[in-house]
Structure to design on (210 residues):
């Protein structure tokens, strides 16, 4: 039942989510945000036992918080350096341009809901879809062929990153690959934190706030 509900909410998000950033109609944006926000809360509720277990993991292993800080800092520094050295000045992917345009909309309602979607709905739903749904199951499959935890983590993170990247950049340009390299840190953190979905969601939220 849990997997079915998560699958339905995930498909709904993937199909409807972009409407928030594409539409200029305040009513459409508002309705879409409300539905997505409700679906994200329902998804969290369906995963409540997993999230409570994640909290217990942090209490038992406080070093997870140190890993969180280190990985977020590394993501910021490495992404900043790679973007500065390898991308044209002020480069922004086409997908990000659409998001930015809604965040800079003269309509206050659209601007506010786009911002809330970026820091709340997107991190929750994308972490559930790509980390909990894709990466976790990939790691389970890969672990049946190898006893190497490091290999399992790296391979599942790399494959998930590729899928994550395709979702954000259908154009598959090299510049976009460099621009979205930060997505790999989401995947690596999830694997290195022993599949801590709660911290991964917060990691994603923190990045989107930067």
């Amino acid at each position: 039942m849990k997997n079915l509900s998560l699958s339905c909410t995930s498909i709904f998000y993937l199909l409807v989510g972009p409407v928030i950033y594409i539409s200029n109609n305040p009513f459409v944006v508002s309705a879409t945000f409300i539905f997505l926000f409700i679906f994200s809360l329902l998804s969290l509720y369906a995963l409540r036992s997993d999230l409570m277990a994640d909290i217990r993991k942090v209490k038992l292993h406080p070093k997870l918080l140190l890993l969180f800080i280190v990985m977020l800092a590394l993501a910021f520094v490495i992404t900043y350096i790679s973007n500065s050295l390898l991308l044209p000045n002020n480069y922004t992917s086409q997908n990000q341009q659409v998001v930015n345009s809604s965040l800079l909309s003269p309509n206050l309602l659209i601007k506010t809901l786009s911002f809330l979607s970026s820091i709340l709905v997107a991190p929750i739903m994308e972490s559930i879809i790509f980390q909990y749904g894709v990466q976790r199951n990939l790691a389970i499959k890969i672990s049946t062929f190898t006893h190497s935890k490091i290999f399992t983590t790296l391979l599942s993170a790399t494959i998930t990153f590729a899928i994550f990247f395709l979702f954000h950049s259908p154009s598959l340009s090299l510049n976009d690959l460099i621009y979205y390299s930060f997505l790999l840190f989401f995947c690596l953190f999830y694997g290195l934190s022993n599949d801590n979905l709660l911290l991964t969601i917060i990691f994603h939220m923190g990045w989107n706030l930067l």
